[in-house]
Amino acid sequence: MPSTIPAIAPPTIQAKTNIRPRYTAALRLWHWGNALVITGLLSTIWFMRVIIDVRGLRPKIRELAAQSGITLSLEQAKAISKLVSHRIWDYHIYLGVALAGLLALRVLAELTAAGRQRFGYRLRQARAEAGAATLVKYSYLAFYLMLVVMVSTGLGILYADKVAWLAPWEETLKDIHTVDMYLIIGFLFIHVVGVIANELTKRRNVTSEMIHGGALEEE
Ligand code: HEM
């Protein structure tokens, strides 16, 4: 009698339901857009202060004018150098307005994300685990605050000659704007070093997750 081979049921592939990206498309768009715009903004300052060195141009302008027999006052040389800086400031302002738009997108991304995709959730989770991740999440919180300060002081400087009550604050706003730039540079340095350290040790795919979104399995 032929032996009957018991039928073996094929392994069932458990369908993974409710898989959401760890980072929403809006957050990823904001992240890379923000990186691009901040790089552009820092480049305008780099051009103005280092590559072109607008202030250093003034004595040069006077020197060249003197070689052609024209005597220029420091104020006149300053006015000519401003022709160059105005061009760069225009780009700074376009990018600054773009940064303000991106900040609004970030708020929208947080409000429309599902619970576990929210920064607020990740912060609470990191606090509960009380590890190094808490410090990282707080550094992001500090960065969001820096962005709010940068955008509001930038818009304040932009409208200082149009809004009467802002005018007396212009110099203070410029000082805060500049100090905030150094804080942002400090954050970016620590952030990039942190990402590289993560890629080399624990989570090897943090950068690609910020590109394709990663996967977050709902419980
Ligand atoms: C990472 C972002 C930014 C950096 C690093 C940055 C940096 C700077 C620095 C160093 C100055 C010179 C301040 C001074 O004269 O003492 C400046 C001026 C200015 N920034 Fe920003 N800024 C940023 C974002 C913004 C934003 C979001 C706006 C908003 C539109 C903005 C608008 C301006 C304006 C209007 C000025 C004055 C330009 C002028 O003197 O004609 N900036 N910025």
Strands, total number:
2
Into which percentage range does the β-strand content fall? Answer: under 5%
Overall, the morphology is: elongated
| Class inferred from helices and paired strands | mainly alpha
Mind summarizing the main beta sheet?
2 strands, antiparallel
Write down the domain tally.
Answer: 2
N-to-C series of helices and strands: EHHHHHHHE
The helix fraction, in percent, is over 70%
| Radius of gyration, taken over Cα atoms and rounded to an integer in Å | 26 Å
What are the distinct ligands in this entry?
protoporphyrin IX containing FE
Helix count from the secondary structure assignment: 7
* N→C terminal distance: 51 Å
Overall average residue pLDDT: 89
Describe the structure.
The chain has 7 helices and 2 strands; from the N terminus they run βαααααααβ. The protein is mostly helical and 219 residues long. It has 2 domains: 21-115; 118-204. The site of protoporphyrin IX containing FE has 22 residues, from helix 1, helix 3, helix 5 and helix 6.
